[in-house]
Amino acid sequence: MQAIEVTGTIDENGRLVLDRPLQISHPSRVRILVLLEDSNNLISSGDQSPENHQFSFDPDAIPIWELAAEISAQVPEEEWKKLPSDLARRFDYYQKQRQEKD
Questions:
Q1: pLDDT at 101
Q2: What is the mean pLDDT of residues 29-50?
Q3: Can you spell out the DSSP letters for the chain?
Q4: Across the chain, what does the average pLDDT equal?
Q5: How many CA atoms lie less than 13 Å away from 4 in the CB half-sphere?
Q6: pLDDT-based confidence at 102, cuts 50/70/90?
Q7: Distance between CA 46 and CA 52 in Å, rounded?
Q8: Alpha-carbon distance values, 60 to 33, 41, 99 (Å)
Q9: How far is 59 from 5, CA to CA, in rounded Å?
């Protein structure tokens, strides 16, 4: 998947109108993430299907991988050594094992 950033406007019919044509070599289906500068324009449709959820985006938020690195850096090395070496590959197995203990 390739990302292309382009600006545009939403017209009175709710259609996206790009400010410039995309330089694409052939017709393609695309996924679009719309970032609104003014979220007061949103209208609640009452449709709760996942396709119609409205998401907010904070461009200043710390990326999740940086948060994970920051949190994991607080764990002492001896605690990391207690983890099984195959934890990522067999996570479901270890999770089920723990649930059975509880």
A1: 80
A2: 68
A3: -------EEE-TTS-EEESS----SS----------S-GGG-------SGGG------TTSPPHHHHHHHHHTTS-HHHHTTS-TTTTTTHHHHHHHHHHH-
A4: 83
A5: 11
A6: confident
A7: 9
A8: 17, 22, 38
A9: 14
